[in-house]
Automatic annotation (TrEMBL):
Known EC number: 3.1.3.71
Enzyme class of the recorded protein, top EC level: hydrolase
Superkingdom of origin: Bacteria
Keywords noted in UniProt: Hydrolase, Magnesium
Organism of derivation: Pedobacter lithocola
Reactions that this protein is recorded to catalyse: (2R)-O-phospho-3-sulfolactate + H2O = (2R)-3-sulfolactate + phosphate
Family the UniProt entry places it in: Belongs to the ComB family.
Gene: comB
Full protein name: Probable 2-phosphosulfolactate phosphatase
Cofactor field: Mg(2+)
InterPro entries per record: ComB-like, ComB-like_sf
Length: 237
């Protein structure tokens, strides 16, 4: 089988792709998939992504941690949002977290409707993710969560990094993959400097969470690959 990689630049385009036999990598670098990866790395038992803030409340009596973010900020009344610094071993070890975010959890739900498998990608687990994708005899769709169904730079740069690492192992690439890889090659020597151009980076800067941005751009600090099993994200065995 000749394997292909495609990049879906926004969840609004996912219906254009045949993903029934594909591993879909959901990407929301700032910050949902980075925080999910870090949380699973740090021993979270599971992370349950839900679409709406109200959906979190359905789990309130189960003893789970409830995490809700909208427009970059923690929703009032919830344990935390999607800052990676909330997903330390001390806070999430052995715990189940119910999470809703502006972009990432929406992308997860869209992928889960049709994909063969859904996994989580971040710069934090880039190498382990690529090793896994290379080992599977499956097509890959890199799904960028974007910003409210629009294109964004940081997710596309990560998609480009994956394409760049896997180029020798896959035979077919779409134009979105080519463009994403070209952007990554432009930016890779200083991702943070390049992302100063991005709208979401500027939004987060206004919230005074530059430390989060820098954290999410670290390479290969985690080996865990979160995988969606039913409604729960758990560590890929």
């Amino acid at each position: 089988m000749s394997k292909k990689i495609e990049v879906c630049l926004t969840p609004a385009l996912i219906d254009l792709y045949d993903i029934e036999d594909s591993i879909v990598v959901v990407i929301d670098i700032l910050r949902a998939t980075s925080s999910i990866t870090y949380g699973i790395e740090n021993g979270a038992e599971a992370i349950i992504p839900v679409a709406n803030v109200e959906d979190c409340l359905k789990y309130a009596d189960k003893g789970y941690l409830l995490a809700a973010e909208r427009n970059g900020e923690v929703v009032n009344g919830y344990d935390f949002g999607n800052s990676p610094f909330s997903y330390t071993k001390e806070k999430v070890g052995g715990k189940t977290i119910v999470l809703t975010t502006t972009n990432g959890t929406k992308a997860l739900h869209l992928a889960n409707k049709r994909a063969y498998q859904v996994v989580i990608g971040a710069f934090l687990n880039l190498d382990s993710l690529c090793d896994y994708l290379q080992s599977q005899n499956k097509n890959v769709l890199l799904l960028c969560a974007g910003w409210k169904d629009q294109f964004n730079l940081e997710d596309t740069l990560f998609a480009g990094a994956v394409v760049n690492k896997l180029r020798k192992n896959f035979e077919h690439f779409d134009d979105s993959s080519v463009a994403a890889e070209d952007l990554y090659l432009l930016a890779k020597d200083d991702l943070r400097k390049y992302l100063h151009k991005s709208s979401h980076s500027n939004r987060l800067a206004e919230l005074n969470i530059e430390d989060d941005v820098v954290f999410c751009l670290q390479l290969n600090t985690c080996s865990a690959i979160p995988v969606l099993e039913g409604e729960r994200l758990v560590k890929l065995k």
